[in-house]
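Progress report, Aim 2. The chain analyzed during this reporting quarter is listed below.
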Amino acid sequence: MKKVILLSLIAIATLRNGVAQEIKISRGGTDYTNGTIEAWFDIADYPGTSAFTFSGFIVKNTGNSAKSIRMIRQEVSVLSSTSNYFCWEACYSPNTDTSTGNVILNPNGEFADMFLDYAPSGQTGISTIRYLLQNVANLNDTASMLVHYNATPTSLNELSATPMLSAVFPNPASNQVAINYNISQTQSTIEIKNLLGQVQRVLPIVAGSKNINISVADMPEGIYFVTLKSGGNIIDTKRLMISR
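Predicted structure tokens for the chain:
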């Protein structure tokens, strides 16, 4: 009897795990369904209560039937004094966690007007929020995305006046960029990430050195973040524009 029950439970679990993922979330051609995405931005660009807007998402119904989809916001870890809200067929207040309106997606239908807003209110650091898309006719039919909002400072003077990125030039850059810094710690690196938080370059630097030249000729045009790290800690971050 126990064996029959066990086999039944395994069969049920297999059926559940075998259900196809029919709601997809992508950005820039990358699938972030049930995954994590990094949202890096310079806090100096969003003073007061102005908000960083994270957009460019495509939500798609890959199933064979129409779906009525709502959005649910789940604050996982949010810095104090910050605020956030979302737009999903309408823009909601920071106090709203679940959309009151739904988006109807037909088979192979797409929705591109999904906007995620985060106001750092002067707070540097990371806030983490999960966005859940749910089929109101089948609450188990969902897709989610975890967003790390990383508000980076123009400089971290409170750490030290010495270890910092002093210049990134030319900026905008097209082929080559020179990065000047001043750091004495060992195990230091220069890291370049795009707006999606994807690492494009990681270069070790020698303690006591003053600069490094990096080729960006193969990197697409756009905004990037150059970060000086030491012992795994972020020391300073500068914004880099690549334009041709």
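The chain has two domains: 20-152, 164-242. The radius of gyration is 22 Å. These observations will guide the mutagenesis work planned for the next reporting period.
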